[in-house]
Amino acid sequence: METEEKKIYTIEDIARELGVSKTTVSRAISGKGRISQATRDRVRAFIKEHDYRPNVVAKGLAQRKTYNIALLMPKDYVATEFLFFKDCMNGICEMASSYEYDIIISMIDGADVSQIQRLEANRKVDGIIVSRAVVSSKVQKYLKNCKEPYILIGPSSDPEVPFVDNKNQEAGKELTSIMLMKGFRNLALLGGNQSYNVTGSRYQGFLEAHEEMGVSVNENLIFMDTDNQAAVSDAVKRLLEEGADGIVCMDDVICSMCLSSLREKKISVPAEIKIASMYDSKNLEYNNPPITSIRFDTVRLGKMACAKLLNILGEKPLEDTLTLNYQVMLRESTQ
């Protein structure tokens, strides 16, 4: 026996079945416009009974929207960054879905803007989320001059660029201040890629903590672009020769490489040197010993970025008004 195919209703079908106008049905669905409560309830009961779902394509055409948002991901991201991007993407997708938007992922190769040009030319998206803030980015410069609304994840010194960011500078300052208050006076800093704006934010927090505590920064203990094992190993060798009493790493990846180098040299943490990270991860939490780190809510960061873009697009997400916070997780590595 063949199953009868379920009918897919349109607004016109509903209007005809109920003997009302299409405008009345539209007003009942949207909740806008003047119709009686009885008529509104009657339309909604019919919709529920027949599992009517608005045609997003038709809705988009009527409102000149695609209901798509582009998420620009860096093609050069490394495997160790995957968890950050995954959590951030989860937050973006969750927020977009709640407002009936879909996410189109586009991998951007350095300064190549051809994919963005194609998205814009073909009117495939209503807005763009840029997932990494890069200093002097050609992508950012292009977006400022194109017609598509966009939001940046990460800090920007340009007042014309809308962005959402964790409190990296404030958190970096607090973590460094805690270590200085513990009596460390010769802190080393292992920094990340200087082309990323977040590196500048965390470095500024490190400097501000020293200035506020009246402790001089030892320039011989500042190491930037330590984004590979060779660079980290060289930095660890030099900071030990310089007599560093503590190490602050800008992120969990650098910290993991630093721990590996210290183990190679048979340097015990925290007995012989203390170490902390400006970004937490499960690896650092479950390390032996567990590493003092800053915990950010990356899923919420993604939600906030999407909420701000939706606000620009005319939606009114409540999440746009929320703030992003962090926690300093004090663990055995700085005891």
Task: Give your account of this protein's structure.
This protein is an alpha/beta fold and 335 residues long. It folds into 3 domains: 44 residues; 124 residues, Rossmann fold, CATH 3.40.50.2300; 128 residues, 3-Layer(aba) Sandwich (Rossmann fold). 44% of the residues lie in helices and 14% in strands. It has 13 helices and 11 strands. The strands form 2 sheets. It has a 6-stranded mixed β-sheet, with helices on both faces. It has a 5-stranded parallel β-sheet with strand order 2-1-3-4-5, sandwiched between helices. Helix 5 links the parallel strand 1 and strand 2. The longest helix has 17 residues. It is elongated. The mean pLDDT is 87.
Indicate the low-confidence ranges by residue numbers: none
The N- to C-terminal Cα distance equals 74 Å
Q: Mean pLDDT across all residues, rounded? A: 87
The amount of beta strand, in percent, is: 5-15%
Can you tell me the CATH architecture of the largest domain?
Answer: 3-Layer(aba) Sandwich
Adjacency order of strands in the biggest sheet: 7-6-8-9-10-11
CATH class assignment of the largest domain: Alpha Beta
Fraction of helical residues: 40-55%
Largest sheet: 6 strands, mixed
Keywords: DNA-binding, Transcription, Transcription regulation
Pfam family, one: Peripla_BP_3
Domain HTH lacI-type: 9-63
GO molecular function: DNA-binding transcription factor activity; transcription cis-regulatory region binding
